[in-house]
Amino acid sequence: MERSKRVMWLVLLLIFVLIAGGCGTSSAEKDAKGTITIGLNNWPENIAVSNMWKILLEEKGYKVELSAMEKSPVWAGIAKGDLDIAPEVWLPQTDEPLYNEYKDQLELHEAWYEGTALGLVVPAYMDINSIEDLDKLGINTIVGIDPGASMMKLTKKLIKEYGLNYELIESSEPAMMSELTKAYKEKKPVVVTLWSPHWAFSEFDLKYLKDPKKIFGDQENIYFMTRKEFGKDYPEVLKWMNKWHMDDQSLGQLMATINKTNSPEEGAKQWIKENRNLTNQWFE
Predict the structure, then answer these.
(1) CATH of domain 117-208
(2) What are the record keywords, sorted (predicted)?
(3) Beta strands per DSSP E along the chain
(4) What is the pLDDT of residues 209-234, one digit of tens each?
């Protein structure tokens, strides 16, 4: 009887050791995968996909940190190697100045979104369709975003090229959206700098003003970039991200879910749960 008890206790002890050892190995393997830092600026689609990738990579055993800043510091951080990934590069025109400045110090990868748009946007109730008609509005301000954004530089160029008597107001994406929302509710005239993809187009009836001089250029694609040697340090992550592709529907749903939950992380988690068929394709 005593011998049977001893055998039973030895078996239980062996099981405990095996479980503890397995857990220890799993934790060590997880820690061994390292920390990845994603640099993002305050654009809705940038926040959305950065949180999406944070969750997806953490599921694969990586530790992921998000570092929020304006666009120019993101490029500088990637070039210096202080950041690992930046998910949003608009080319061939919008981010061309930054790309030309830093292209030898970073690595540009696959396009994950095709067919963007950007320009001056007004509510559909406004009786104006072209940038050339802006001086007929009776207002003299364009509400912009953060001063370091390439779009702001293009807008300054646009004001000069069209000879507009307008002031470009520097603010941020949330501040710009606040001004648009307020004016829209009161049916007042307002002109903002905006881009697609953006959740605003699903919330409001908006329109781009025609740009005959094509200051904002034609449609572009969105790429992601990494620091030098990132692919060498994290080959499987780069492989996964090069398979990443989203369209208006998938990206729009992701941004809308985040907007409804009022939490980038929770919204991204919910969207991932509902779109495993899509995200699983990136890891095949």
Answers:
(1) 3.40.190.100
(2) Cell membrane, Membrane, Transport
(3) 35-40, 63-68, 85-91, 106-114, 117-123, 141-143, 167-169, 192-196, 206-208, 221-227
(4) 999 999 998 889 999 999 999 999 99
